[in-house]
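Deviation from plan, reported transparently: alpha-D-glucopyranose complex.
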Amino acid sequence: MLVIHLSTECYPVVKNGGLADVIGALPKYLVKNDIDSKVVIPFVDNTFTHSEELIRVFENSFFFGQDKIPFTIYKNTSLDFDLYFVYIPNLLDRPNVYGYEDDADRFLAFQTASLEWLKTWDKEIDLFHCHDQNTGLIPFFLKYSYQFEKMANIPVVFTVHNTIYQGIMDWDKVRWFPCFEPVHTHLLTWKNSINSTAAGIKCADQVTTVSQSYMDQLCLDSHGLEYVFQMNRYKCSGILNGIDDSIWNPETDFMIVENYAIPKTQKGKMVNKKYLCQLFELEEKRPLLVFNSKLNTSKGADVLERVIEKSVKSGISFNFLVMGKGSYEITRGLELLQQSLKNRFKFIPEEDENLAHKLFAGADFYLKPSREEPCGLGQMYALKYGTIPIVSSVGGLEDTVKSFEEENGYGVKFSYFSVEDILFSISKAEKIYQDKGLLDTLRKRMMSLDFSWTNQAKQYINLYKEVTKNQKIVWESI
Ligand code: GLC
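Because the crystal trials were delayed, the predicted structure below was used instead.
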């Protein structure tokens, strides 16, 4: 079976958030299960594309409104799956994947150019798997654009990774769309605009999101898309993401100071913690809590400043390390707090992949107080590294963390999002830390869990089989 993934991120090539980790891992585990998986992303002018070999495999041009735009497809084979870059001069040739004024045009061009190339393939494509809003128009283009008619019968799975970003555009953009019959216009529309996520949901054969609890939430609260999910509920499902334990594994991780596994967890974590504490000049004997996520309100980062300040004032013994980038206000607040709490709190305004591994290995607790969390990978990395997660009971956090107060539980959870509830959870965590026997039991319990893609990829394979069942398919390898 040949599956083409279309995305705007892919670890280790280009990463903005969890989407990259998923696209860097899922295809790899599909390939291991004999699902030939290829990934198509926009070209970025960065270290990866400079240092790795890129082979030019296709060149052509496409109509973007009245303009004829040239594009090139480059292939890279250094990962465990074939990766293709769509290069478009002046649009997809920049150092970052997002953050430009013309992003809507850039991703529109990306989607059109990708299909222009894919329609020329001599291989039979069995399924397209599109990820998030920047590829959300592809299901529509495939089914209703004359120029892609040839691929109209190929089934499409659309995965929603976060409904905060919906790829909303004004109607003037439609002049750049590949031609389609106007009778289908309603499929692009939501609340009087073109909405890429809504179009993806309406036109895909199957829609998935990244946890069951997030799926349940979307019908009730999805930033205005509730009715779209309700109407299409029959083809929607939640499949929890996995983690790539060839990269995120304390036993083999080359980015951490000391590798460890059960039963030598305690020593391993101690050595890694010592390193972190020395690096950031924090006292080693205090419990260490880390936050490593985007600094925005959705991830609950706006309350960090108050939580840390109040914790220290109330006599909680924790040290705090926060790493992340995001809102100016949150960043500024944390910078100021750091100045007044020098020995107890360090703020790293970065997104440093290497350091992230060290944080998961060296910390005692991992805080993820999200207001909403489609899946969240950080808490799963924390579990793997024996770092107790302190999380809100939403989306993927609800599905992956079981409270230590329940039978066989291991994490600390709070149901209501408030500074007080987070503080109360930290005080519970402090009690866990003081009870070395309990701490050790919980660590071992967490580390024995399996949230890997080895398990989770199978759910996608079942879905792919289901979706392609009624199509004209040549089952090559399963
Ligand atoms: C988005 C979501 C996050 C999820 C990731 C990968 O970044 O916010 O919860 O883990 O996508 O699916």
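The pocket of alpha-D-glucopyranose is lined by residues 17-19, 22, 161-162, 210, 241, 373-377, 396 (CB under 6 Å). We consider this an acceptable substitute for the interim report.
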